[in-house]
Amino acid sequence: MTDLIDRIAGPFEALGPRWLEALKANPRELFIPGQAWVSPGDGPGYVIDRDADTSAWEKVVYSDISIVTQIDDGAAPLVEGYEEGSLYSSSNSMPTIVATELGLLGLHADDHVLEIGTGTGWTAALVSSFVGGGQVTSVEIDADVHRQARANLARAGRDAVRLVHGDGALGYPGGQPYDAGMSPSARPRRHPRGSGRRGRAAPSCFRGCRCGGMARSSSCVPSATVRRLVVSNRAVRS
Hints:
Low-confidence stretches: 186-202, 219-224, 232-238
CATH class of the largest domain: Alpha Beta
Number of domains: 2
Distance between the termini: 39 Å
Number of strands: 13
Structural class: alpha/beta
Order of helices and strands: HHHEEHEEHEHEHEEEEEEE
Strand order of the largest sheet: 7-6-5-8-11-12-13
Shape: globular
Largest sheet: 7 strands, mixed
CATH architecture of the largest domain: 3-Layer(aba) Sandwich
Helix content: 25-40%
CATH topology of the largest domain: Rossmann fold
Strand content: 15-25%
Number of helices: 7
């Protein structure tokens, strides 16, 4: 497995030895389902299937590629792929994007971190290894994604991460104050079917961060942008 991890280790190694150790302690494959959808951006999307072709599955998992783990909030099967008008509603981000986001946070040991949008749980696992397991709170609005993230984190031995099923746009006051916040879900997404709501995880969810704390937000696949935010006593600002 070490040889596979080395394929995506570069961006984490650049952040320092502690982040590289966090990567090695939380192999990406533990957070990727057996079947997933890949949208490389330079060609048509396709399904990866661990049982059908383990080598091809591993090649993608340990490449700098975003992997879609849910389409249309689970209404569309991954094996059928993306259709016009569909929405990538959950994914495992490109390793370079994850490393960039983590670097922008400027975390220290024992920092208390809030994540909005648990997704597969990989980022929460990485941060947990860096700051300490009980220091990470992650909020996920989708029940199925929440349950799978819990299973993924348990498989990786990161049970100490506090997982919350709820609307991340509201933050999570129960864990305040936070030293840093992160939101890979700061993009339009659908709320659970039947809720009648659509929206965006707003920076206001980070108002539980201490003054001077760092926050970051990023868009979903296939392209990604990363923003660094600074928390003041009045607002969260870019």
